[in-house]
Amino acid sequence: MAYWLLKTEPDSWSWDQQKKAGAKGEPWTGVRNTAAAKNMRAMNKGDLAFFYHTGGEKAIVGVVKIITDPYPDPEDEAWPLVDVAAVEALPKPVALAAVKAEPKLVQMTLVRNARLSVQPVSEAEWKLVRRMGGLKDK
DNA sequence: GCCAACGTTGGC
DNA sequence: GCCAACGTTGGC
User: Protein A99 CA to nucleic acid C1 C1', in Å?
Assistant: First the structure.
């Protein structure tokens, strides 16, 4: 089981839309960056990911589940896709500023390489951000 | 709106 | 295969 972080502009794909897609999920499209694609190819069905709103909001707002193994994008088979489904919202969204203010999270890819759109998250980071977001440990 | 950081492209 | 130029992203 691995953990990830998926970035999106709420104008193009928002948490609201992700929630409406329900348990069936939606393909996570538009990744056209080799490092991000490499991370996506390393995903497995059942992995979990944070859902991050960039742009004006800049906060981790929810948790999604990777519900397929990676498969080729029918639009362009050189790039991978996975389907993701909303799991739960964070009761208290974790802002980028809060992540940066937390010394235990300075190593997070979100801080170190803000531009990467599909990022790995360590188990320690996952648990801490969940707790900061108001979710109980599982 | 600016610009630093990063990725990609293309000439050599 | 290198690297300068260029484009894009995203935080500020």
Answer: 40
